[in-house]
Amino acid sequence: MCYLCALLKRTYAPSLMNTLTPFSSPLYVMSKPAGSLCNLACDYCYYLEKSLLYRNGVHESHKSHEHFEPHKPLLMSDATLEAFIRQYIEAQTQPQVLFTWHGGEPLMRPLTFYKKVLELQRRYAGGRQIDNCLQTNGTLLTDEWCTFFSENNWLIGLSIDGPQEFHDEYRRARGGQPSFHKVMRGIELLKKHGVEWNAMGVVNDFNADYPLDVYHFYKDIGCHYIQFTPIVERLLPHSDGRRLASIADGQDAPLADFSVTPEQYAHFACTIFDEWVRHDVGDVFVQLFDATLACWVGQAPGVCSMAETCGHAAVMEHNGDLYSCDHFVFPEYRLGNIHNDSITAMMYSPRQHAFGAAKRDSLPGQCRQCEWKFACNGGCPKDRFCMTADGEPGLNYLCEGYRTFFRHVAPYMDFMKEELEHQRPPANVMEWIKEPHKS
Fold first, then answer.
1. Does this model's pTM top 0.85?
2. Structure confidence at residue 436 (pLDDT)
3. What's the rounded Cα separation, in Å, for the pair 439 and 425?
4. Predicted pLDDT of residue 435
5. Which residues of the chain have pLDDT under 50?
6. Which end of the chain is more exposed for a tag (fewer CB within 10 A), N or C?
7. Is 240 exposed, middle or buried (0-12, 13-18, 19+ CB in 10 A)?
8. Which one from 161, 205, 290, 326 is the annotated catalytic residue?
9. How far is the C-alpha of 160 from the C-alpha of 170, rounded, in Å?
């Protein structure tokens, strides 16, 4: 869900409602039409190993399910696709419905699959406005794909970690081949066909030390909507072959080498903010900065990691299994299957409600007393595996990085908040900074 902020057209205006309205819907499900199947094998990918949950095409907990197709273990069937589209539209409380196709790599499915998507969406729309977005690594984009996206107004999120040296460090094919040039070719095709797109960059132990190189790269390739996602993963072998730890595995799992440190992330975010707030407000939209300003003015941030509660955004695997969140696709967080229970029933179930409320209710005392709680809310629950200063569990690994960032941006956020309250554009901050005593 998080990257959707950057996919939306918006400008800083007296009201933030144009930015935040798409996130007011209480129910959201991201779909995995090819499961974890991908043509790349990025070192830090948290989803590739999810295929181990479906080694025989069937989840361990429901092997007798009649809708499984063992001969197509990672591909969504037509029956599951239709059930998902029908139920998802029926579950919405607003006239706009946003579908997100994710992976793995969703372009591992042929174009005919997505033409079927449009056909089914028209059949079940019931007068609602239907929009689609798709997150891709960009390497499989062609003129045919981009023509389809352009003609049908799809929004495309594209994963790229910065200049070639940084991108190819971790984002490689299964045989070790670099992917940067194929991604850049994909970007050029999106531009050629006028497809709206944004960049999603993973902040890792390598590129975090070069924030301006990364930021200027995005600007140089004409990207105006950027999401930076800090990578934090822990390693813990499981009996089924999975290696990544979940929050349910406790605190002892060691960090993966590619994880960004709190200090690195703070330096990365603060350095880019200093560049952005002086030159690019209103022209370049960085999700972290947009969401922080939303929190400052008392609006919902539209970013689940910074919201008070979560649980409104689930993920559906290729076979119809519904999980509480994209970062919680573990057996203990499986809600059920859409062929047995409706999306509405599962999303409004006591179990999912408890999952969402736990983000707020399990905050340690240190977080509850923190001056930045209104903007942080403890961060993503998947990263809350550390101990507080007084020995209480549940502290976010990136806590000190967030605290440093919020302290750093506070004067500028205060100014932009005041501009909004007086119905003036926050972009005025760029002139305010030029005053001698503000530099």
1. yes
2. 78
3. 20
4. 86
5. 1-25, 60-71
6. C
7. exposed
8. 326
9. 11
The token pair at 243 is: 């290696």
pLDDT of res. 59: 55
Q: Can 326 be counted among the known catalytic residues? A: yes
Residues with Cβ < 8 Å from 384, sequence gap 6 or more?
247, 362, 378, 394, 395, 396, 397
How many whole angstroms separate alpha carbon 253 and alpha carbon 278? 41
> Which pLDDT score is estimated for 22?
36
Helix intervals (H) in 130-261: 143-151, 164-170, 180-192, 211-220
User: 100 has which bridge partners?
Assistant: 30, 133
Cα separation, 187 vs 65, in Å, equals: 41
CA nearest neighbour of 209 among 254, 256, 165, 151 = 165
Q: What angle do CA 210, 214, 216 make, to 5 degrees?
A: 120
Q: Which residues contact 422 (CB under 8 A, 6 or more apart)?
A: none
Task: Write out the two tokens for 343.
Answer: 């999306």
- Vertex 199 angle, CA 137 and 229, to 5°: 90
Closest CA to 207 of 174, 171, 182: 171
**Burial tier of 360 (Cβ tally within 10 Å: 0-12, 13-18, 19+):** middle
Per-state percent for the chain, helix, strand, coil, to nearest 5: 45, 15, 40
Pair of tokens at residue 262? 């709190």
CB half-sphere exposure, 11, CA atoms < 13 A: 7
